[in-house]
From TrEMBL:
Taxonomy, superkingdom: Bacteria
EC number(s) on file: 1.6.4.-
Species for this entry: Paenibacillus hunanensis
Protein name as annotated: Alkyl hydroperoxide reductase subunit F
Cofactor(s) this protein cannot do without: FAD
Oligomeric form and interacting partners: Homodimer.
Portion of the full-length sequence here: 208 to 509 of 509
Family per similarity comment: Belongs to the class-II pyridine nucleotide-disulfide oxidoreductase family.
GO molecular function: oxidoreductase activity
All copies of domain FAD/NAD(P)-binding, residue ranges: 2-287
Keywords annotated in UniProt: Disulfide bond, FAD, Flavoprotein, NAD, Oxidoreductase, Redox-active center
Top EC category: oxidoreductase
């Protein structure tokens, strides 16, 4: 059995594994895809102390660092069930059951896609998901934000301070964001809000040059010329397999305390799969360290 078993090999899982292994305890890491979301990221400019890096490069350094400590890495394995008896048990899709005194869940999240032509083609070529990450790339340009919930409207307010113009595209007849955010949004001079609009296509040549939507009342087709599209229709935590094992929020995020502990004793969680307020590389690495120290504290008391 392991002392600490980390499920997930993104920034939070790698950080948790390093912090655990440095305590000299038996540490395993099982991950479907080592690196996680950063494998889909081109430029990273907000990983503090590194002015610019690229996702796959950061993932390779993470792996090298984890391997430095003799962590038992089980790549290309997906966990499907979590249970607790004397030890915590993690069952993999291949049928194997791993046992550990403590488990750190760091299975991350994924952005919900809008699923229209052009989205996949122009990813990282004008189509973006994270305003904190990619907003500055669109300085002085025109962008659209798809989605009028809290994250969409927050993104629009944030982007309006950087870009030339923001068009918010909401499918429903009303924005769903909190009213204080809506008031703030409507007070901005360089924002247009389009409601009742179904996005049909993101257009471009090498990079994005516009967005096409249909007015759901009149069925008229509109095209807006712009250089960027931020898709803000939700970040989905990879926690489906956990819903019968521990407490999740309404959004499916794992509820954690300040030690990274979940509602199941001995099970900790870190990164984008948790109810942390913000989802970023540096934040997930910090919470991975917290969860590992939390797990170590738990172990020496039990
Ligand atoms: P993830 O990176 O999602 O890793 C999850 C890990 O768990 C993966 O290894 C996955 O394979 C594994 N996993 C999932 N389910 C299972 C399972 N059932 N069994 C086993 N393994 C499983 N943040 C920044 O700070 N700066 C940026 O510039 C930036 N740009 C981004 C650009 C894009 C396109 C995207 C998608 C995200 C970006 N982010 C950026 C956000 C950042 O990538 C995430 O906050 C960070 O990766 C979260 O780390 P994590 O370890 O919590 O989860």
């Amino acid at each position: 059995a392991y002392d600490v078993l980390v499920v997930g090999g993104g920034p939070s899982g790698a950080s948790a594994a390093i912090y655990a292994a440095r305590k000299g305890i038996r540490t395993g890491l099982v991950a479907e895809r080592f690196g996680g979301q950063i494998m889909d990221t081109v430029g990273i400019e907000n990983f503090v102390s590194v002015k610019y890096t690229e996702g796959p490069k950061l993932a390779a350094s993470l792996e090298e660092h984890v391997k430095e400590y003799g962590v038992d890495i089980m790549p290309s394995q997906r966990a499907k069930r979590l249970a607790k008896n004397d030890l915590v048990e993690v069952e993999l899709e291949n049928g194997a059951v791993l046992k550990s005194k403590t488990v750190i869940l760091s299975t991350g999240a994924r952005w919900r896609n809008i699923g229209v032509p052009g989205e996949e083609e122009f990813k990282n070529k004008g189509v973006a998901y994270c305003p904190h990450c990619d907003g500055p790339l669109f300085e002085g340009k025109r962008v659209a934000v798809i989605g009028g919930g809290n994250s969409g409207v927050e993104a629009a307010i944030d982007l309006a301070g950087i870009v030339k113009h923001v068009t918010v595209i909401e499918f429903g007849s009303e924005l769903k964001a909190d009213s204080v955010l809506q008031e703030r949004l409507y007070g901005l001079p360089n924002v247009t809000v389009v409601k009742n609009a179904q996005t049909k296509e993101i257009t471009g040549t090498d990079t994005v040059n516009g967005i096409t939507y249909v007015d759901r009342d009149s069925l008229e087709v509109h095209h807006v010329e712009l250089e960027g599209v931020f898709v803000q229709i939700g970040l989905v935590p990879n926690t489906d397999w956990l819903k019968d094992s521990l407490d999740l929020t309404r959004m499916g995020e794992i509820v954690t305390d300040k030690h990274g502990a979940t509602s199941l004793p001995g099970v900790f969680a870190a990164g984008d799969c948790t109810d942390s307020a913000y989802k970023q590389i540096i934040i997930s690495m910090g919470s991975g360290a917290t969860a590992a120290l939390g797990a170590f504290d738990y172990m020496i008391r039990n």
